[in-house]
Amino acid sequence: MTFRISGLSPEPFRSFFGLPEAELALLGIKRYRVDAKPGFPDRVELKDAEPGESVLLLNHVCQPADTPYRACHAIFIREGATQPYDAVDSVPESMRIRLLSLRAYSESGMMLDADVIEGVAIESLIERMFGNPQISYIHVHNARQGCYCGRIDRV
């Protein structure tokens, strides 16, 4: 089964890059200096930020559907991230090394399936979920902290 994994567009976050701490705090955003890898997975490029880099921790509406499954959660964005991850049949390392929760949705945004899997085996769960023709897309979350990781679509 062919699938596409994509990260978030950097556009909604660019205006936060470089803001002083006080202005970020007013927006409910916290800046961190990365001190370990892995540990700070960027949701634009879908890779862990390097030690010394700066990331922003902010709340993001990851499931905007007007259903009971509408959802938001904290995510990291690497300051300066410019190129959203977009790859067919390729899983980023930041997903491979984590325990993941996959949530499968209908076109209208209703959750139809969900499961947890080690990132090294994600393809098997993607294939199983997309075996259901009612499933339109899948959201990937870190299972432990619940943070949104990326989106998977059929190709």
Give a topology summary.
Layout: E1 3-6, H1 21-26, E2 30-33, E3 54-63, E4 71-78, E5 86-88, H2 93-96, E6 99-105, E7 111-118, H3 122-130, E8 137-142, E9 148-154
Antiparallel strand pairs: 1-5, 1-9, 2-3, 3-4, 6-7, 6-8, 8-9
Structure description:
By secondary structure, the chain is mainly beta. The chain has one domain. It is built from 3 helices and 9 strands, in the order βαββββαββαββ. The strands form 2 sheets. A 6-stranded antiparallel sheet has the order 5-1-9-8-6-7, covered by helices on one side. It has a 3-stranded antiparallel sheet with strand order 2-3-4. The mean pLDDT is 97.
What does the average pLDDT come to? 97
Shape: globular
Number of helices, counting only DSSP H or I runs of 4 residues or more: 3
The tally of beta strands, per DSSP, is 9
* Distance linking N and C termini: 8 Å
Number of domains: 1
Strand order of the largest sheet: 5-1-9-8-6-7
Q: What is the N-to-C succession of helices and strands? A: EHEEEEHEEHEE
What share of residues is helical?
10-25%
What structural class do helix, strand and pairing data support? mainly beta
Low-confidence stretches: none
Strand content: 35-45%
Q: What is the radius of gyration?
A: 16 Å
Reported for the largest beta sheet, the result is:
6 strands, antiparallel
